[in-house]
Amino acid sequence: MNILIFEYHNFGIEDVKECFEKNEHKYKIKETVLYREDVSDEFDELFNAEFDKGCNGEKYDCVFTFNYSPVISNNCNRRNIPYIAFIYDNPQVLLYSYTIINKCNYVFIFDKLQYQEFKNAGINTVYYAPLAVNTDRLKRITSNVDERDKNVLSCDISFVGSLYDEKHNFFDRLEGISDYTRGYIDAVIKAQSNIYGCFFLEELLTDNILDDMQKACPVKPSATGVETVRYLYANYFLARKLASDDRKETLEMLGKELGNQYEINLYTNCSKRYIQGVNVKGPVDYYECMPIVFNNSNINLNITLRSIKSGIPLRAMDICGSGGFLLSNYQADFYDVFVPGEDVVLYDSLDEMIKKCRYYLGHEKERQQIADNGYGKIVSGHTYDIRFKEIFDVVFNKDRGLYL
């Protein structure tokens, strides 16, 4: 099969390349940020030129991207060629483009609630598919790490991820809102912080609150999509603020309750932040270092961005694929892939998270068995080799597959 890939700094692109090569698919990668546009004459020219060249002179069978691109969809639709998009981000505002109904589309969404939203609206170009990992690569890295790196990157509890507290983040742009609006938003965020498995930020943004937010930091939905102002504020402003609060509160509680007894490491872009009882370190490379952290941390935390309504984040799949023990906040889709308590461990409050950290740090044999079980579930059902076989069966063999 000949595959044209467009990408720009996507996690997992190296794993896709390895998967295609292993399965004797030919591909060509074009790296450009232009494919993330709704409309782009420059991209249309690039697409046409590349498509006419083909893959070593042979006709392309399909186009692939991580996440969804309206401009690619339109180009594929004109040429009547399948466009495969594998979504690993949420929010993903480009999914709400009018182009989502193009007949060329095969859009695989990792968040089941978002998938159901589209299906319930009569969109038949979307499919549900949990994310995948390259266990071959992860095994190569974790099996060949030297003792120095293993010692440096090992700890009792680790979290790898952003704190979403960078300067000029979206939420801080709302500094001009009224005291009433700020109090209302703070209360809504606090209420959401205590509830896992149900995202209600969007529906609680009233018209009056939205009007005040618009005055402070205007947002404008795309003219080529159906996303609303309410969706944009809830998912890009409030959900990220909530993620920041979630992660800081979780790490602060861990440091306070367990920091004197256990080594707790945070790997993040903001390495100058101080959290009592927590070692705040710099970021780790996705391909080379992160698997070592996951494999050599006794407990790996997953703290999900709340705009991911039910899906299993890539971080969680990578942890299990690296042979690590996963402790995550509740997400409904875990039950599609794992058996909680046997393959992974979930919590639905910070008090429960602390109790489970204490328990599993004191029960090494049970903890290792759970990590082994989680790894086994990934190997048997959620590698890139398996996922792309399922995807290509849907696209080319019209097999409606396991995840519809």
Describe the 3D structure.
The chain is an alpha/beta fold. Helix content is 43%, strand content 14%. Strand 5 (105-109), helix 4 (112-120) and strand 6 (126-128) form a beta-alpha-beta unit. The mean pLDDT is 94.
Radius of gyration, CA atoms, in whole angstroms: 22 Å
SSE string, helices as H and strands as E: EHEHEHEEHEHHEHHHEEHEHEHEHHH
Q: What summary fits the major beta sheet?
A: 6 strands, parallel
- Helix run count: 15
Helix content: 40-55%
Coarse morphology: globular
What percent strand?
A: 5-15%
Give, in spatial order, the strands making up the sheet with the most strands: 2-1-3-4-5-6
**Spatial gap, N to C terminus:** 24 Å
Low-confidence region ranges? none
The number of distinct β-strands equals: 12
> What structural class is derived from the secondary structure elements?
alpha/beta
Q: Please, what is the average pLDDT?
A: 94
What's the layout of helices and strands?
Layout: E1 2-7, H1 13-22, E2 26-31, H2 41-53, E3 62-66, H3 70-79, E4 83-87, E5 105-109, H4 112-120, E6 126-128, H5 135-143, H6 147-152, E7 155-160, H7 179-193, H8 207-216, H9 229-258, E8 264-267, E9 279-281, H10 290-296, E10 297-302, H11 314-321, E11 326-329, H12 334-337, E12 345-347, H13 350-361, H14 364-381, H15 384-397
Parallel strand pairs: 1-2, 1-3, 3-4, 4-5, 5-6, 7-8, 7-10, 8-9, 10-11, 11-12
Helix pairs in contact: 7-9
